[in-house]
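BUG: 3D viewer hangs when loading the predicted structure for this chain

Environment: internal workstation, default settings.
Expected: structure renders.
Actual: progress bar stalls at 90%.

Input used:
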Amino acid sequence: MKNLKGKVAIVTGGTRDIGRAVAIRLAEEGVKVCVNYCNNEQNAVETLKILQGMGAEAIIVKADVTKEAEVKHLVGETVKAFGNTIDILVNVAGGIVGRKLITEQDDAWYEYLMGLNMKSVWLCTKEVVPYMPEGGSIVNFASQAGRDGGGPGASLYATAKAAVMCFTRSMAKELGPKGIRVNAVAPGMINTSFHDRFTKPEGRENLHRTAPLRREGEAMEVADLVCYLASGESSYLTGTNIDINGGCLFS
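Structure tokens produced before the viewer hung:
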């Protein structure tokens, strides 16, 4: 990819599934990667070993990206390791967590879902932008749920991801004059532990029958798109929310 070798990236939620694939894909292009994790240190250490085994410059940093002080710590550790420039921010951290119908939701659930999926993107963007030079790139993670409202019990997750899409467009306008591009990817059903936990087998089987491509996506296919958006190959793309779902946006 154009103009990636030697760049510095933060990948939040970068220790499993799509996040790990993104970290690996960027490292393949010579990017120095800070991989953020919150709870699973074992996954983080495994990811670091993979990256170091590739010969990549990489660190792992524990931080809850819904908390401002911990995001400051994440950015501070990245700067300490790689210098005062952060070229790429990939906001992967997020998740559906669980399914609750509107009558089962309470304030704590609302705050948690919106914090994990939207506040984290806002906080990380706010803290990284002062270190981001002209030519920098931010890639946010939205979701097909942000387009179609999600499945039963996923209303707050879908709403938060729709907010990420709007925030992406807003930041593209605000940061464009500084030469910083902001885009988002909106995955559909990707073969990850996310769907192993939260999607019923019959839903996945139905997708295999009805999807235009007759299959789920793979994490590395999403990572390829992220790498493209982070690179100079996409130098005139900003404010986009790119669907990657095998043609199944509203199926």
